[in-house]
Amino acid sequence: MNYMKKEYEELIEKNKLLNYELFNLSKEFKETQDSLSKEIIELKEIKLHSENRVQELERIIFLMENSRSWKMTKYARITGILLRRVHNLLTLLPIAIKKKGGLVNFAKLFYSKLRQGGLKNLQYAIRTFTAHQQSENAFHSSQNVQPEDIDFLFHITKNPNELFEKRILIIAEMSIPQCTKYRVKQKQELFESLGIKSEIVSWTDYIRSKHLISLSSLVIFYRVPAYDSVLSLIGECKRLNIRTFWEVDDLIFDEKVLKESRTINSLDTATVNSLLEGARLYREAMLACGEGVASTPGLAKEMLKAGLKNAYIVENALDLQTLETAKEILSKPSKTNDNKIRIVYGSGTSTHNIDFEEAAPAIAKVLKENSNVIFRIIGMLDLPDYFNGLEKQIERIEFCKYPEYLRYLSECDISIAPLEDYIFNESKSNIKYLEASIVKAASISSPLSAFVSVIESGKNGLIANNSSEWYELFTKLINNVDYRNQLANTAYNFVLERYAPKFIATQLNEFLPTTLEKRKKKRLISFNVFYRPRSFGGATIVAEQINDLIADSNEYEVYEVFVVTTMPPSSFMTAYSVMRYELNNTTIFGICVPNEEMENYENKNIYNIVSDILELVNPDLAHIHCIQGLGVGVVDACTQRNIKTAVTLHDAWWICPRQFMIKADGKFCHQYKIDKNECIKCIGSTSEYLYRSNKLLNSLNKADLLLAPSQYFTDLYQVNLNKKVMVNKNGIKKPIRVLPKFKNKIIRFGYVGGRTNIKGIHLILEAFKKYKFKNAELVVVDNLLNLGQKSYPESDFDGILKYEILPAYTQDNIDEFFNSIDVLLFPTQWKESFGLTVREAIIRNVWVITTDAGGPVEGIIEGVNGNIIPFDSDYKQLAVAIQNVINTYEARDPKEEILLEKMHIATFEEQKNELIQLFKL
């Protein structure tokens, strides 16, 4: 009895001690949790700050790209990569918290890693998670600062004018309102009157300019200097084989002409030097473009003399704004009732002082002789001293908006366009004549080419060759109101016809490419989240191989192929910019999607971009593969344009918020007929699940054709969609070089699924550790070795007698890998859509052991080319299968070649042929 009492007391003491330890652990955990919460808040603040720094730095790098100051970019690039590393790590934090089941679970994991192996173990866990997450998103950055691989961008062979609908980009200097109106916005109106879409962007917006270049077939650079950013944009056009035109409406690119100009030399020294430096920069930009657009014949002639191979003339027109404003003005009495006759001069800058001298003496004289004559100045003008005493006859109006300017002009009787007789002015256009004529003001102009080419002096205007003629013509118009009105009305009718938008628009046809001939092939546009050079995942391999075969086919019924994919942020791409490139005879549009948005099922930023691409390509058929990151709006953009749309259901993304039907604990959910209540419990949000499900299924239901890569996935989707799904089994690439297989002393078992339990690696490692298979070697592919990182710590293989870790193979060296193994282990823990690796192994005479996991088993003939074990097998059942294979192989005749049944396995060529027929449905 005493013994039991003593034992009871000891148990009480131990319980107290355990309670005390538990209390301390709880307290410690609470403190750790609180600390983590604070750290997370701080990390989010750091993340926000780092994002701003990264964006700022990337803009600097953008502006220096292709610059003549290339050596300056070295440290900026290094800093940018380091900052992006910090940014990427911080971006992964919310992903890690979400994937581990919330903040509390994440904190527990964090704490356990710290307790198990200290800081070193925690660092390894962080590195492993980061590496895996980057691998999943194909957004890698190596541990060493390395130059970015941009070689893939420089393989453009196709002419965009033969490839796309006409799409014009105008990259413009827009600080001068009159120039912007007549040469930029008016040009856009003219293009649109021809049914050609065009876009305007400021040359100072480098990022948007570069983005739009990839969505254009022809680019006009208006009045831009050869700054590094501009030369980079011109270089981008050359990369894409896009014709580039440099446009201007003044002779601002000839340094010699500017040096000898009285107007220029009347300015201060600093301004003169700036203009001369500008001339050099304008000339360089013009020559870099190679072709030009001028507003007058004289200007076009000077462009050719400067070295351009072509210079086209597109005159200023009466645009819609001018015509509508003039119509409104003329519908009401515009002349004042004060019995005054007004001479008007519009001067945009102080540089017009010299030009004004041509008419100034005559104006001063008629003002002195006629008290009823008023001289109206709109803008800036310094009057000579001989105008002193005439202040009451002078009206000054400040700069104003264009409609007001036309109204002030319409109140006048005589408009003047005096210009110094100098080569610089020979290149000027006749805007003053157009504007005066459209509001029925009579014009007197200097005898420069832009005016004498359209004015029949005495009929639709007047030409004054010298000061005395200016005086005579003023006098005649002042004294003869009928003659003045006759000139004005004739000029009005003349410019309405000669400078109508429809007429001037025909001048654009001189340099526009001819209309595309009828297509020899229909067009297919393919969408996949990854694509070369970022080939990642089975669906990507399928999309690439099928597209290559279609693109290389000469059959009439096959398609010309275009691709839309994602690209990671880099020194040459920012979020939601587009980069066009070409690989394997296929034109590819890469859209930059930030890493943190790659898992989005809805990406509203993508819709407009894809719409622009569709408008440019004008496809007959859209083939949707995996579009996470791009988002479901891709399907909507296609179906809303009545483009026939086929969707290949490569995974469960359309019906499962977790894409692969893997729960938060990393285990398969075992659903076949989807129960929304189970899904809601799985993701923890009713509203999120219902919104996602409705959004995706509504879009999917609009598709014309649904395809699945296996019978299992066909049945799965038909059960859950109540819509017909067609089987289009994935093919595989034909082996180039398959070595004969014979019995080996050591049987090599290969595994390629990655360090994740959902692929069954834990079963494989446990089986090899516990059973110590003789005459067997485990060969594991580590997908991160090629990136200078590791997925597997050496401790994973403790207790395994013989093993080898190899880097990932590609479609180019896949034969080499499968020639080196005898058996493929594929104990996947989820129901897969196809199992590409299984087929790749069998066609190369590699035996396969797989779980009963949906699509993969359709390639297995039990006991003939592989073995199927139960889906829920543990490592013991896997070990039995491994041992059976070892026994079978050891019993083989060493001289007998191993040949497996493979006739039922389709190649990509066969899949492509079947797909073409399905597209016709």
Walk me through what this model shows.
It is a single chain. The chain is 45% helix and 14% strand. With 921 residues, it is an alpha/beta fold. The protein has 5 domains: 24-137, no CATH class; 166-313, Glycogen Phosphorylase B (Rossmann fold); 320-499, Rossmann fold; 522-727, Rossmann fold (3-Layer(aba) Sandwich), CATH 3.40.50; 747-905, Rossmann fold. It contains 32 helices and 26 strands. The chain has an 8-stranded mixed β-sheet with strand order 15-16-14-13-17-18-19-20, sandwiched between helices. It has a 6-stranded parallel β-sheet with strand order 2-1-3-4-5-6, with helices on both faces. A 6-stranded parallel β-sheet has the order 9-8-7-10-11-12, sandwiched between helices. Helix 22 (538-552) links the parallel strand 13 (522-527) and strand 14. The longest helix is centred in the N-terminal third of the chain and has 63 residues, at 2-64.
Main attributes of the structure:
Putative glycosyltransferase; 32 helices; six-stranded parallel beta sheet; Glyco_trans_1; 45% helix; alpha/beta; Rossmann fold; eight-stranded mixed beta sheet; glycosyltransferase activity; single chain; 921 residues
As a whole number of angstroms, the C-alpha radius of gyration is 38 Å
Give the spatial strand order of the biggest sheet: 15-16-14-13-17-18-19-20
Output the CATH class name of the largest domain. Answer: Alpha Beta
Query: Cα distance, first to last residue?
Result: 89 Å
CATH topology of the largest domain: Rossmann fold
Helix content range of the residues, please?
40-55%
Tell me the number of helical segments per DSSP (H or I, 4 or more residues long): 32
Protein name: Putative glycosyltransferase
Organism: Actinobacillus pleuropneumoniae (Haemophilus pleuropneumoniae)
Keywords: Transferase
GO molecular function: glycosyltransferase activity
